[in-house]
Design goal:
Elements (H helix, E strand, L loop, with lengths): L9 H7 L1 H30 L2 H28 L2 H7 L2 E2 L1 E7 L2 E9 L10 E8 L16 E6 L12 E6 L7 H10 L2 H9 L15 E3 L6
Antiparallel strand pairs: 1-5, 2-3, 3-4, 4-7, 5-6
Helix pairs in contact: 2-3
Length: 219
Amino acid sequence: MRRFEFPVDTAHATSVNETVGDVRRLRWAALITGLLFVAIGVWLIVLAHPWSYILGVVALVVAAASVWMAFWAPRKVGSVEDLYANGELVPAIVAVTRPRGATLLALVNTAKPGAGQPHYALVTRTIRTLPGHSMSNVGERVPSISVLSDRSTNSTADTWQMVSPMPVAWGTRDPKVIRRAIEQIPNAEWKLLTKSIPLTEDVPRAKNQQLPVDPDDIH
């Protein structure tokens, strides 16, 4: 695995890192849902009907699950420092420009540690901000860290179900760090991504939104 170490600017990451923002929004949504179902459950129990007791208990169970999710999600994802330290350095480029952001196209090895061989795939991510880069420049090189996970703990597949590139620029303001990350990625991988820009719109329709890449093509 190709690691990339750099001092993460936590304050910067907290303000611009959209992976962190997604977890934060998920947590607040789970907490609000939990509070809503607590109120519904209490109201149903107060009605004091046989059917309302049952529904009230169900509502409180849903509330407990939502609150558990609010605290479990950040722990599962880990801190922003953990995400940058544990992921692999991967190439990504600006493939599509949008009025309020851009779509990144990334080349990621989606194989799990015990897979035995790499499984390369093209993945995309739509982003809103990208400090340190020009989002209006198609082909802009955006070194990133792969964030890998499964939808459930029961998956026995050799590859990760959920794959997302997290730009290094979301973790640092230092342009030297970004340049160093770009230089550590082989030029062949950058060339493959540039050649694959026309495939960007096909990625969301692929299984797990991952378009397989033949390892022999990475030359």
